[in-house]
């Protein structure tokens, strides 16, 4: 069990909401924490953390992964011909 100190304003809002919905303050707090934790798990996934950076910088070479062997061979031939 945990105790949490709330500012007076939040305490009053929680009390009002509890009365309106006819549920306990604890239930409202549990639901809010559950939603917060779920949202944090989603937003902190590796993809979410880096999605703004994916594809920002590139070589401009669209077929790099399919032509890498031929590119290496070209470089070797260039060095050998020098």
Secondary structure topology:
Elements: H1 8-21, H2 25-43, H3 46-50, H4 68-81
Keywords:
82 residues, mainly alpha, 4 helices, 63% helix, 0% strand
**Protein structure class:** mainly alpha
As residue ranges, the low-confidence spans are none
- End-to-end CA span: 76 Å
Choose one word for the global shape.
Answer: rod-shaped
Count all strands and give the number. Answer: 0
Percentage beta strand: under 5%
**H/E order of the elements?**
HHHH
Q: How many individual helices?
A: 4
Q: Please give the radius of gyration in angstroms.
A: 29 Å
Nearest-integer average pLDDT = 85
Helix % is 55-70%
Largest sheet: none
Quick recap:
It is built from four helices and no strands. The protein is an all-alpha fold and about 80 residues long.
Q: Overview of this structure, please?
A:
The protein has about 80 residues and is mainly α. It has a domain at about 5-50. The chain has helices spanning about 10-20, 25-45, 45-50, 70-80. It is rod-shaped, with a radius of gyration of 29 Å. The N and C termini lie far apart (about 75 Å). The model has no long low-confidence stretch (mean pLDDT about 85).
